Recover the amino acids of this structure.
C-alpha cells in the first residue's frame, strides 16, 4: 500500500515545492485537486486538457520527486437544483474524467451530489428520515434524479477507463455504505467508494465492517480520523451544526490520523483493506482544526508508514 496526501492544504505552495516537501516525508502518492471544493492549486484542468506540454511538465514534476498520482479530486454537486451550478459541477467532473484518461490516472474522487426534494425546490435537501411521508417521497424523487445522472456519467467513465470514487459524505445523497452499493447496482462497477472513515465514525458505523461490506467497491481511500467528544454528544447528539472552528462546543472533530483512533485501530483498517483486496493509496486528507497542516500531515505520514504493508504476502507455508 502507498502512503499518500491530498495536496489541498499545501495550496499556498508552488507545485514543485509541495512535491519536494512531500517526497522528503517519504510520501508515495499525491491526490490533486482538479476543481470543485478542492480547487486546483497544483494543476489547471483546462490548460492540461488543451496542452500536451503542460501534461508533460506535470509528469516531469512527479518523476523528479518519485511521486505518482492516486486520484484527481473534484468534489462538487452535479445534482444541484440550480441548473447553472449543476452544469458547472458536471463540467468539472467530466473534465476531471477526461484528464485522468489523458494522464493515465485511474481514479477521480468526488461526491454523489444532492438534489432538491422536488422538481420545484431551489436548494438541496438532505433527507435523513422517512416520516412525515413527504420526506420519503422526496428521497424517492432524489434517487430518480441521481440514477439518471449517474448512469450516464458511469457509462462515460467506463468508455475512458476511469473509476469514480464517491466519498460518502453528509449533506450528499450517498453518505453511508448501503447507499453507495445501491448506486453502484443502478449504474456499473466504475462507481465505487472513496472510503473516507472520518464521516462514518460519527454516524456510528464500524469501519472494518464497512470495509468488508464494500469489498472491491472501494476504489480509493482517504486516511482521515475523527474524535467524538462524548460530553457534547450526550446532550446534543452528533448531527452537529456548530461551526468547525468552535472546537470546544462540537460533538465531534475531524482529527489527524491517530488522534481520533489509536495506532492499533489503523493497523486493523489496513489489514481489513488487504483482506478485501485493496492495495492502493491511503491518501491523507488534513482537516484538523487543532493542528497546523504541516504538523497534521507529518504525524499522519509517520503513523501510516508504521502500519502499511510494503510487500505482498507470501505463500501460507504453515497451511
Amino acid at each position: 500500500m502507498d502512503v499518500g496526501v491530498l495536496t489541498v492544504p499545501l495550496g499556498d505552495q508552488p507545485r514543485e515545492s509541495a512535491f519536494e516537501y512531500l517526497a522528503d516525508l517519504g510520501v508515495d502518492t499525491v491526490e490533486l485537486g482538479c476543481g470543485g471544493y478542492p480547487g486546483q492549486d497544483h494543476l489547471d484542468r483546462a490548460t492540461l486538457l488543451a496542452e500536451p506540454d503542460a501534461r508533460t511538465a506535470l509528469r516531469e514534476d512527479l518523476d523528479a520527486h518519485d511521486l505518482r498520482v492516486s486520484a484527481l479530486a473534484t468534489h462538487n454537486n452535479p445534482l444541484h437544483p440550480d441548473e447553472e451550478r449543476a452544469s458547472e459541477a458536471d463540467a468539472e467532473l467530466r473534465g476531471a474524467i477526461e484528464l485522468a484518461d489523458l494522464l493515465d490516472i485511474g481514479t477521480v474522487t468526488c461526491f454523489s451530489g444532492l438534489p432538491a426534494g422536488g422538481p420545484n425546490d431551489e436548494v438541496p435537501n438532505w433527507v435523513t428520515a422517512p416520516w412525515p411521508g413527504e420526506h420519503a417521497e422526496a428521497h424517492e424523487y432524489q434517487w430518480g434524479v441521481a440514477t439518471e445522472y449517474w448512469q450516464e456519467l458511469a457509462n462515460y467513465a467506463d468508455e475512458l477507463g476511469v473509476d469514480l470514487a464517491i466519498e460518502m459524505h453528509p449533506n450528499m445523497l450517498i453518505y453511508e455504505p448501503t447507499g453507495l452499493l445501491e448506486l453502484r447496482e443502478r449504474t456499473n462497477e466504475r462507481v465505487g467508494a472513496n472510503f473516507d472513515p472520518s464521516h462514518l465514525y460519527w454516524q456510528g458505523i464500524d469501519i472494518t465492517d464497512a470495509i468488508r461490506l464494500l469489498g472491491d467497491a472501494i476504489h480509493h481511500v482517504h486516511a482521515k480520523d475523527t474524535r467524538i467528544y462524548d460530553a457534547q454528544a450526550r446532550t446534543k447528539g452528533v448531527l452537529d451544526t456548530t461551526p468547525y472552528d468552535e472546537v470546544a462546543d462540537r460533538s465531534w472533530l475531524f482529527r489527524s490520523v491517530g488522534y481520533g483512533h489509536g495506532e492499533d485501530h489503523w493497523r486493523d483498517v489496513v489489514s481489513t483493506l488487504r483482506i478485501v483486496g485493496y492495495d492502493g493509496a491511503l491518501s491523507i486528507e488534513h482537516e484538523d482544526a487543532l493542528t497546523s497542516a504541516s504538523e497534521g500531515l507529518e504525524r499522519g505520514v509517520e503513523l501510516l508508514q508504521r502500519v502499511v504493508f510494503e510487500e505482498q504476502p507470501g505463500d501460507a507455508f504453515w497451511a
